[in-house]
Backbone:
């Protein structure tokens, strides 16, 4: 636990007989801790507050107050470890031409699953709600971001020359000032056909959507590789890529066309 207390004074001389001074108090703290540290499910937390004076070369300085709170929970398990977290970040400016207040709430989750040396699966979740308030003379902006990520890896065969199958899927969605969404799905297969022969098959599908435009891309690749010595290898590869761009029409746009 750390606490800082003090007084803050700013003095300004404009050079034309104009001067200005400002006196205020200063309070900063930093608190961190962990409950049940030696248990299978420890809980950690933190709370911080700080104030900084931002120097600007060709404009007046301004103060930035920030407050952070966070809580995390961890489940210790050899086969299925899980981690959950929450964080709130808020900041406020004083002295700008247009002062603003920002608040961000973030939730995270992650989990892993292990099945010997055969399978490894990982999952993660990220969600954030951001709000920016410009006061009475401004506007309020709200943004929301959600992201999922799932991966899996299978390994079998000889320990020195294993065969693997890797799968990954990522999805991201943003709503607010700019609406957009994207996804990425990939499969990668590596087969050890012999002592010196390996075959690889790769598939990748990507989708991006922004406003009224959707972009889809698919890539399929295959590679056959034979390595007789470290300095002598033969490779035969093939790749095919498909790209499609679509215009998305809303119901309002369709009514206007009619």
Residues:
């Amino acid at each position: 636990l750390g606490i800082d207390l003090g007084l803050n004074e700013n003095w300004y001389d404009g050079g034309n007989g104009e001067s200005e001074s400002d006196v205020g108090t200063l309070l900063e703290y930093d608190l961190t801790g962990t409950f049940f540290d030696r248990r299978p499910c420890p809980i950690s937390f933190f709370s911080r507050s700080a104030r900084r004076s931002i120097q600007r070369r060709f404009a007046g300085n301004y103060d930035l107050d920030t407050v952070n709170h966070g809580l995390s929970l961890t489940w210790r398990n050899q086969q299925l470890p899980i981690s959950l977290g929450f964080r709130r970040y808020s900041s406020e400016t004083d002295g700008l031409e247009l002062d603003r207040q920002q608040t961000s709430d973030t939730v995270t989750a992650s989990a892993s699953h292990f099945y010997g040396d055969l399978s490894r699966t990982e999952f993660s979740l990220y969600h954030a709600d951001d709000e920016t308030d410009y006061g009475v003379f401004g506007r309020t902006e709200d943004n929301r971001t959600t992201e999922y990520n799932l991966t899996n890896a299978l390994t079998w065969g000889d320990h020195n020359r294993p065969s693997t199958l890797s799968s990954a899927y990522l999805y991201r969605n943003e709503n607010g000032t700019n609406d957009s969404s994207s996804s990425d799905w990939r499969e990668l297969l590596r087969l050890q056909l012999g002592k010196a022969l390996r075959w690889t098959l790769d598939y990748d599908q990507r989708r991006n959507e922004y406003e009224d435009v959707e972009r889809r891309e698919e890539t399929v690749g295959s590679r056959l590789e034979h390595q007789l010595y470290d300095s002598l290898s033969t490779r035969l590869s093939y790749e095919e890529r498909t790209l499609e761009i679509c215009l998305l029409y809303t119901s309002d746009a369709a009514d206007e066309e009619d």
